[in-house]
Specification:
It comes from Pseudarthrobacter chlorophenolicus (strain ATCC 700700 / DSM 12829 / CIP 107037 / JCM 12360 / KCTC 9906 / NCIMB 13794 / A6). This protein has 409 residues and is an alpha+beta fold. It has one domain. It is built from 16 helices and 19 strands. The strands form 6 sheets. It has an 8-stranded mixed β-sheet with strand order 8-7-9-10-14-17-6-18. Strands 11-12-13 form a 3-stranded antiparallel β-sheet. The longest helix is centred in the C-terminal third of the chain and has 17 residues. The protein is globular. The two termini are 31 Å apart.
Length: 409
Amino acid sequence: MSSKDLRTAVDKVVRNGNCTGCGGCALLASNIEMELDSDGFMRPVFRKDFVDSSPDMTRVFERMCPGISVTERTDPTLSHHPTFGKYFSSWEGRAIDETVRRTGSSAGVLTALSAWLIDSDKTGRVIGSARDAVRPTRTVPVSITSREDALRSAGSRYAPVANLPLLKTDGADNAFVGKPCEASAAKQLFDMAGVSDESRPIVLSFFCAGTPSQNATEGLIRKLGVEEESVGTLDYRGNGWPGDFRIGLVDGTDREMSYQESWGGHLGRNLQWRCKLCVDGTGGHADIAVGDYWHADAKGFPVFTDAEGTSVVIARTRRGEELLQEAAAAGIVSLSPLDLRKVAAIQPLQVTRKNTLLARLIGRRLGGKAVPRYRGYKLGRLALSDMPNSAKSLLGTYRRTIRRMGPNR
């Protein structure tokens, strides 16, 4: 297959608005780079010297790219939840170290596990993301090799970043923290290569409601009356739960906005199209996935007032379960059993999005766009459980598709 074949396959994903910005294609081909486009999303760019290094590269890309297909785990020994997918065990958890717990977005579990994996010599490095040291309004992939690195990378980054290009594919001496779509692409790649579970990198993921545009972050900066060159630090969450959107200025002063306003009013309203068609926003292809276990009010709705962070922690594989139990025994994380039905009650967005996904896929197709293929998720059954919202989602998606035909719209 020629380099034109791979370019055509990648361009088709982008053109139809199905690119997640995960960087899987850049992991396959070193002459593809991930860059922000004019809409503020990470997209693959082919360098002029691009040459296809393998005749099977297009075939591999088409199987691993989450903008083309995603397949549910098939292990019959795993439990199953209609919203959260296949899992080995589920827990309410937090980091034992209070500094880590408070620095992290919810309860510091991913930060604590990342530092522990390195300190216990289970891996030489952990791939993650962090604030750009040179341009702090941006987010970049990083290689974490110490506890100090892990703490610097703590906290959610509600912005485009592609971590996969940093992943080593020739051995298990690296762990990976990434979005659910990145975890899916990594699993597909290692499945195709026939890599045993023990020889794969440990994959950690998190609950994801979608990737906001970088333009949304820049809009928040302007809304707070700040020029980009005056920004010294930028944190989307952390230092509390859920924590505020916080800009530290070079003059030593701060500007803040609540999580509810920053995410609900701005960032969450500027998501890329593919995220609105996501079949797995809860890290179903990772070894361990972590999300917010929000407090609820009397009616069961999540409450975003500041509190000590608590997470839902899901072991997706036997290896993930063994790692969690070892980390708990080592005093790294605290775990107590948790019924995922309770999590569904305070993660209503994930539930509704999953139930109405088939309708949005149909609306998108009726609007003339190709959509990803999802296997094993029983989307028809979920759609039937919520027909009124499914009907609204189908019509709304169709209207938005024909009204805004750009690749990110």
